[in-house]
């Protein structure tokens, strides 16, 4: 069979593009920069906003806003008490901060970074997300073992749902279902966003103290990271546990790349970023050394970058009856954002 030159060149070009895409997907991640933020205090979750090219980093009583290209500070939301997470309205106008120390969700303007409303919740709101089908914000209250559902139009709590244990990080599937890790029960809950009810609780096998969660919307998969070096992979429709992947020690956050079908776990205990092949066998692609304490992360699909935060620590204080597991103090001005890319 004869093949004309034009068709041959088109086929060659397509093959070259596919080969190039495969090589990009397989090439390892590496640390490409360290951006010093400084200041004092602890931290929790961070969130990339590709539409505005910024990263929101919770940092004690404030949220830092960092340019995702340069690492320069472009603003901050201040006057808070003890921040945990950030959720963003898809209209680009406002954001929502779980201010655990203030038992509230704070609404802020994404242009001026000014606080514009404070919505009381139950005790210690931690993980937070925006649910698109109902246009609600869900703040998971760690100490109250509940979730406060906030109507974004009225900026008020319209439902409080009791949970079977201490909630950690949540995810939404974009189709009206919300999922959350229950840390002290080694399980995942499913909630109906429209009915505002708990509809299922799924136990995790071989996965202790689940914390961070990522979601694969195309294949309806949940990735929960746990202590003991495990990541549980669940079918979000049935709750069936499909696999248990190996990760590093001390994770507190997870991420997912739809384009490359990779799951990430940020492991503060051993200072690594684990990359898991989610397209095939859930095997480890890479364990990238980062820095001790870099337990939380965010993934930016626009740049295919992972951002993590950590700091240097001083000596650990002696244990007391009142504080049997004391944390070492953070060295002032050592707070740093680690940039990971190809």
Q: Can you describe this structure?
A:
The protein has 342 residues and is mainly beta. The protein has a domain at 30-43 and 217-241 and 249-342: Methylamine Dehydrogenase, Chain H (7 Propeller). It has one helix and 28 strands. The chain has one helix spanning 5-26, and strands at 30-36, 46-49, 54-59, 62-67, 73-77, 83-88, 94-99, 104-109, 115-120, 125-131, 136-141, 146-151, 156-162, 167-172, 177-182, 187-192, 197-203, 213-216, 221-226, 230-235, 241-246, 251-257, 262-267, 272-277, 284-289, 296-300, 305-310, 336-341. It has a four-stranded antiparallel sheet with strand order 1-28-27-26, with no helix packed on it. Strands 2-3-4-5 form a four-stranded antiparallel sheet, with no helix packed on it. A four-stranded antiparallel sheet has the order 6-7-8-9, with no helix packed on it. Mean pLDDT is 93; it is low at 16-24.
What keywords describe this structure?
mainly beta; Methylamine Dehydrogenase, Chain H; 4-stranded antiparallel beta sheet; 1 helix; 342 residues
What is the top-level CATH class of the domain at 30-43 and 217-241 and 249-342? Mainly Beta
Return the structural class.
mainly beta
How many helices?
1
- Describe the strand arrangement of the main beta sheet, using strand numbers: 1-28-27-26
Mass-distribution shape: globular
Reading the helices and strands in chain order gives HEEEEEEEEEEEEEEEEEEEEEEEEEEEE
How many strands appear in the DSSP assignment? 28
CATH architecture of the domain at 30-43 and 217-241 and 249-342: 7 Propeller
CATH topology tier name of the domain at 30-43 and 217-241 and 249-342: Methylamine Dehydrogenase, Chain H
């Amino acid at each position: 069979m004869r093949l004309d030159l034009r068709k041959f060149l088109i086929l060659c070009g397509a093959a070259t593009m596919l080969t190039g895409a495969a090589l990009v997907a397989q090439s390892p991640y590496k640390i490409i920069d360290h951006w010093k933020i400084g200041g004092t205090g602890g931290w929790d979750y961070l969130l990339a906003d590709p539409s505005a090219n910024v990263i929101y980093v919770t940092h004690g009583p404030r949220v830092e806003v960092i340019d995702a290209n340069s690492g320069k500070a472009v603003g901050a939301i201040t006057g808070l008490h003890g921040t945990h997470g950030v959720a963003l309205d898809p209209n680009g106008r406002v954001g929502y901060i779980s201010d655990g120390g203030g038992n509230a969700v704070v609404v802020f303007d994404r242009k001026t970074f000014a606080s514009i409303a404070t919505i009381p919740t139950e005790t210690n709101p931690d993980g937070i997300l925006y649910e698109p089908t109902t246009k609600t914000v869900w703040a998971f209250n760690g100490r109250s073992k509940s979730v406060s559902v906030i109507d974004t139009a009225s900026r008020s709590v319209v439902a409080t749902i009791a949970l079977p244990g201490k909630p950690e990080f949540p995810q939404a599937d974009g189709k009206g279902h919300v999922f959350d890790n229950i840390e002290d029960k080694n399980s995942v809950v499913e909630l109906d966003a429209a009915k505002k009810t708990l509809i299922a609780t799924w136990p995790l096998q071989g996965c202790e103290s689940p914390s961070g969660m990522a979601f694969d919307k195309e294949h309806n998969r949940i990735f929960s990271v746990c202590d003991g070096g495990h990541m549980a992979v669940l079918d979000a429709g049935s709750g069936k546990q499909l696999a248990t992947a190996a990760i590093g020690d001390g994770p507190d956050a997870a991420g997912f790349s739809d384009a490359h079908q990779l799951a990430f776990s940020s492991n503060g205990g051993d200072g690594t970023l684990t990359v898991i092949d989610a397209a095939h066998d859930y095997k480890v692609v890479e364990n990238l050394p980062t820095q001790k304490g870099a337990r939380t992360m965010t993934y930016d699909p626009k740049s295919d970058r992972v951002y993590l935060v950590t700091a240097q620590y001083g000596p650990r204080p002696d244990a007391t009856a009142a504080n049997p597991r004391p944390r070492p103090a953070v060295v002032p001005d050592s707070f740093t954002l680690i940039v990971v890319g190809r």
